[in-house]
């Protein structure tokens, strides 16, 4: 973003900090937690407030993996990379489950079903399940629809879960013990000295030894490095009123290659998200988090067709902005012209199941020069 000389004239106080995290979503909060584990001082700044971005607008699915099925991910990235990223995701999910258990965050260990809408998708998930089993990832291929709602087949992933995502971020942030400065947008980044980076925010000019950008979809607005690498992408959800006869799913359902997803909420409503496949042009490249009629229509039709037994009215509709990376995998690295500034972005709709583990690697890179492995942004250079 740009800021006028009237809004900020660079006379803000200068503050020296050890580690500055930009973005107080799930990833920024987890990064602050991992920094605090090293005993260092960490300050988090956000343009809005804690978890006001995608981290509390999502569906709350902890579904292990990336946005593509295992075998298509192998075709795209190679088997070693996919094995590594799935293991990283399992580690992330475990972190989230531990944070939730320690802080009484609502979590339903309900598992997930990856469901096939067509015979073609059924054939693909059968191959995916076989390859996952070969790589030691426990899951089961089911040739019959476990939900009895007209799906063609499914993969059962018993360790997956559904969570209350806002309370999760609150818990992680609380455990980090970090200082949060809200309503404090970053509008300029620079590094002219080897020993610190300069971060201009509305209230303060930080001189930070290390900076970590956890700004996901909004990253291209902060630094041109991200333009063309991170594509803001809108996602939308509907939620019904509480259902009279209780939950209809008791699982996280994920189908049509991840374009549709559905779960019960903790107070007995049905949540349905997705609908982007038919509206990609409308939903890509925007940071406008208003809902749109075409996507809402797809979600309502899905509710009627797949859940004809649910007659409760829709009570909530919302949208949020995801950060899709150009190749579908998270990006961890340092800004080439400002090496004291690192980043962990590009979660491509899977930040709940990848965010904590990726944040851990990003902090290790920033503070210890560790290589971030398969999620390294070097692959794009
Ligand atoms: C509708 C929807 C459903 C989803 N469902 C799931 C799901 O079920 N499971 C799953 O794993 N993932 C899901 N996702 C994706 C998931 O929510 C994201 O991957 C995850 O929240 C990313 O976390 P983050 O902390 O990187 O980003 P965000 O939560 O978006 O945080 C980025 C933060 O950066 C701040 N910021 C931006 N610019 C600046 C600036 N200039 N200065 C200071 N601060 C700034 C923002 O205010 C924001 O707080 C969904 C997303 C949406 C929108």
Describe this structure in words.
There is one protein chain. With 381 residues, this protein is α+β, with helices and mostly antiparallel strands. The chain has two domains: 1-108 and 159-229 and 326-381, FAD/NAD(P)-binding domain, CATH 3.50.50.60; 109-158 and 231-323, 2-Layer Sandwich (D-Amino Acid Oxidase, Chain A, domain 2), CATH 3.30.9. The chain has eight helices and 19 strands. Strand 14 and strand 15 (260-264) form a beta hairpin. The chain is globular. The structure holds flavin-adenine dinucleotide (FAD).
Short overview:
The chain has 381 residues and is of the alpha+beta class. It contains eight helices and 19 strands. The chain folds into two domains: 1-108 and 159-229 and 326-381, FAD/NAD(P)-binding domain (3-Layer(bba) Sandwich), CATH 3.50.50.60; 109-158 and 231-323, D-Amino Acid Oxidase, Chain A, domain 2.
Q: Main β-sheet, in a few words?
A: 8 strands, mixed
> What is the CATH T-level topology of the largest domain?
FAD/NAD(P)-binding domain
> Which word captures the global form?
globular
Percent of residues in β-strands: 25-35%
C-alpha termini separation = 25 Å
The poorly predicted ranges are: none
Mean pLDDT: 97
Proportion of residues in helical segments: 25-40%
Q: List cofactors, ions and other ligands.
A: flavin-adenine dinucleotide
Cα radius of gyration in angstroms: 21 Å
CATH class of the largest domain: Alpha Beta
Counting helices, strands and paired strands, the structural category is alpha+beta
Order of helical and strand elements:
EHEEHHEEHEEEHEEEEEEEEHHEEEH
Number of helices: 8
CATH superfamily of the largest domain: FAD/NAD(P)-binding domain
Tally of strands: 19
Number of domains: 2
CATH architectural name of the largest domain: 3-Layer(bba) Sandwich
